[in-house]
Amino acid sequence: MKLKLVTAFLVICMLSMVSTAMAAENKSGVDQVYQMDEIVVTSTRTERSVLDTPSNISVITSRDLKEMDAKNIAEALKKLPGVYYTNASGLEPKISLRGTRIGMSGGALVLLNGIPINLGKFGYTDFEAIPLEDIERIEVVKGPISALYGGDSARGVINIITKRGKTPVNGKLAIIAGSYNDQRYSGLFYGAKGKFDYNLYAKKREQDGYREDTSLDNYYFNGEVGYWFTDNTRLGLYLNFADKNRDLAKRLTEEQRKDDPKQAPDYSDTENTDVITGINLDSKTALFDFHTTLYYKYRDKTYENYKKAVLGTPYEEDLGEDVFGARTILTYKKPIFNLANRLSVGIDFDHDRIDVTKTNAASKTPDAPYTIPDPKKSGVFTRQELGVFIQDELSLLPNLTLTAGVRYDNFRFDNDADYDFSQNGLYDYDETPSYDRWNPRVSINYQPIKNLGIYGSLSQSYRAPNIYDYYYTGYYAAKNDYTLEPETFTQYEAGIRYSLSPWFNIDTSLFRIEIDDMLDSTYDDTGKYMGKQNISEVTIKGFELALSGEPFEWLRYKIGYSYTDARYSDDVLTKVDRTTVVNINDKRLTKIPYNKLSIDLNTRLFKKGQSEMWWYVNVFAQDKYPMDKANTEYYPGYALVNTKLRLKLKLFEAFIAVDNVLDKDYDGYAYSSYGNNYYYPAYDRTFSAGFSYRF
User: What is this structure's pTM?
Assistant: First the structure.
């Protein structure tokens, strides 16, 4: 009932405001093109050009998204240097920035118009829920940045900004069909009238998976309405609604994969409804910039695992989640001693409450009733964060800017499981742990000549355990007398950006990330499992290169290359098989290849009046990566070719796309456990075609 009331109220508010703002038709605005002088906000939470930014930042524009054949944000992100992509099911991708997402934990902090949209006990993001057609740009900062965004940003930040209309009516109706019954229907409607601007988007997507018994059937609605009190002050109301149903296949053994990669020995079924709402207030004056966001998030989820009862006893998990929070920043822009300066202070708050109930089936048979409670993985779990920060951006010289900041965060947890892990006081188990952490950051940007920027930064961040970490390890933490602590991330980074001309832009960076007290599975000398503990140290070193340009008005290119060496850097024990225990010091982290390359080439085949035809080709390649912590098994490297032919007319647009043109046999996810290799096969060659009408 609460969900229906909240959703109905917000939809009614938006539709009533839109009806006030609507007017006659007008043609859509011009697509943005990525340039070094483009204004971004993610790296400092203040407006800076890309060239002025004192850290790494990658930008994907609305034009980039239109040209490529990406079905969701994750498929677009994976082409960037330093971004690693996995997709075990083929229908729910995961992203890791610079290899920092490890195991089943959440990855980068993902913001949508300033609202954090990570949800669930793992802190995952549904990249399908944000429509590509509605995005103005995506800004990506890789590596820890907790000095500005708190502990959830220790693995980077992905900031998504949606379109905002400037003319009365803009819109797009689209239909896409493809292999495996892929069907996508969407409508985008945005514009401005008087003091109002609005943006409404609805989407229906259904698809059969590559493997048997897999599918998705999802509905999405996004809406935003803004009111301008003055030319520099805006109040915005935002709503994201998603209703999703997904059947996802489980792993295959090596023998099963060879026999039939499309089979699904077992699978899971997930139904969930997500609501994300927010209110933004932005105001700018000559001396001050002020931004605040209030948000509320809701999830209602039912998860049924091992439906065929082959890989395990079936169970059902019911999860309800409520999150509310606020993010505020005030920037003072008055010069100091005639030196340009920006002094920012801010406060963030986030309260996350999850009520989860796990019930096992009465027997290991399909369709057996769920009658056996699992109190160790049921209960009410709360996570609360309060952070305050200060940052100063001082121009020591006209071409030299020093940025320094520090943030204090306090995390509090309440792990009220249905099971008494202390066993009536027999064990010392802390149900309400709390942490305080300081996160400093200092960086510099120097521009010796026009269009050349050199930057360096040092930052320290931490990542607090998530709700899943606590309730999954409660039994082991009590028996082995330990309490989970935050992981610590330290990053050293230097880079160069240079815009020689429209046909050649280069952005390159070197980095080193040290992770201390990393949460990892723990074994003793005999091979006994001791739970997830703060035992590991990891060092990640890398080099990233991005090249882009437009040599001719009919030819555009983008090249992204990454070299990443991620290794354990302390003595840690793991099990190679059921009996053998080994030390993995200096072994590589799993699923992170040394080398990754993406090449985009977009060529205009003809132009006549307002009619154009473009041909897009993407080549993606990565080399082998270790499948297990001991590095005894490796998954081979592979290369993929994707292409898209797009016809653009005055009001209409059509495309034909082919993914995996060469029909490469590869896997979206692969790992080795206790001496056995497991695989999640990816799609073979697929086709899609689409038609859209713009107004």
Answer: 0.92
